[in-house]
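User: Show me sequence and structure for the first protein, then do the same for the second.

Assistant: Starting with the first protein.
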Amino acid sequence: MSTVKESVEVGVPVRTAYDQWTQFAEFPNFMEGVEEVTQLDDRHNHWTTKFGGVRREFDTEIVDQLPDERISWRTVSGDTRQRGSVRFERVDDTHTRVELVMDVEPSGAAEKIGAMTGTIDRRIKGDMQRFKEFIEERGGESGAWRGRIKPGDI
């Protein structure tokens, strides 16, 4: 597995940044290669992605979610293996640091080449910059889910 870590400071309050990140169906608006995310229930999402011309589908499970602080997930089925966490840190009343850490196991030739050449790192860096632009241009979140998911919850 390769680990990717990227952070960005966004010009919105922590609650706004966190609430927007809980709107998984909006991810294709700022994540390159994410074609669709369907929220199945409070814990599970179905993803359709495309990388290097290869389409992948997989399901993720949220394993830890604490409003305004963090969301952690892992894949549970499909063509992709990853786990990660996004953290939200209040800088001041109108700024938030958003930090994404992902462990990705390249599953095919395109992903393995992407990991070796730094393409995956650059894509995630771009995704974080696009999230910044997306939320700052909107000026507010498109929705929110404020529930708590604890590790070990069923």
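Switching to the second protein now.
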Amino acid sequence: MTELTRKLVDFIQENLVQEGDDIVVDETTPLLTSGLLDSLRTARLLNFLRKDVGVRIPAAKLDSENFQDVVTIAAMVRELETV
């Protein structure tokens, strides 16, 4: 697991998993179909990516394909870092 995927997994587990949910997040946990990402949680994740990772996600990238799991988010972040 890369440093980026570890940061994302930790953030999601600590900040987006609701108390009482029995979800253990890893890099392939389906974020949308599991209900972990809704509009409010997505906004929190985008804020984390901007402030803590240093990558602003443009509106054109706000597509469910880019937020399926930590692997797809990390791939999108790496792509944006090289632009």
